[in-house]
Amino acid sequence: LPASPGPGFRRVYAWPAPGDGPLVARTLGKPLILTDIRHRTREIQMGKDKKRDDKRMSRKRYEKEMEKLHAELVKLQFWIKEKGLRIIVVFEGRDAAGKGGVIKAITERVSPRVFRVTALPAPSDQEKTQMYIQRYMRHFPSAGEMTIFDRSWYNRAGVERVMGFCSDAEYEDFLLRAPAFERYFQDNGILFLKYFLDVSQEE
């Protein structure tokens, strides 16, 4: 993916924590902003990060924090239903940045009827004949729903371009049209959040 996550994204970093699984770290206002905490297993095994390892969050404290955050997510769920909100959350990031872990942490204590996760496979032959954005739009939320995209139409600006799955002209066209497309559905009342998760080489 490009060095810059692109316009509108919030860069979210992964931090060390106990265990190998993805964990939730903190909230910043409404709706909840979650980060992924990953245990730096390789560095610990190699003995290169002993000082930081000593400062890791304890399992007991971690579980208490998770309980609090899951309670806030349940409140968020009721808020979305009560207000009839439509929310789209996009998670992008480099491989192994923790997108799947963050999404799992968000959704494991809430209803899949409200928090709907969408991770689209490669487009079918039929979808290749459609507008590029068309297959994503059919997953957009109705009132009282949040759609979480595990990767999104930004594949065109990242994976597809890097791997040669789109032409330079298609890439440039996407960069031109994506902001207008997003403004259109936001003007229609959809709340839109974009996150780019990043893990450095050291982490």
Present the secondary structure layout.
Blueprint lengths: L9 E4 L9 E2 L11 E2 L3 H5 L4 H5 L4 H25 L2 E8 L5 H9 L7 E4 L6 H4 L5 H4 L7 E6 L8 H5 L4 H20 L3 E8 L5
Parallel strand pairs: 1-7, 4-6, 4-7, 5-6
Antiparallel strand pairs: 2-3
Annotation keywords:
203 residues, alpha/beta
What oligomeric assembly is this protein in?
Answer: single chain
Q: pLDDT average, as an integer?
A: 79
Give the SSE order as H and E letters.
EEEHHHEHEHHEHHE
Main-sheet strand order equals 1-7-4-6-5
The fraction of residues assigned to DSSP E strands is 15-25%
The stretches of 5 or more residues where confidence is low (pLDDT under 50) are 9-46
Description:
Helix content is 38%, strand content 17%. The protein is α/β, with parallel strands linked by helices. The relative contact order is 0.20.
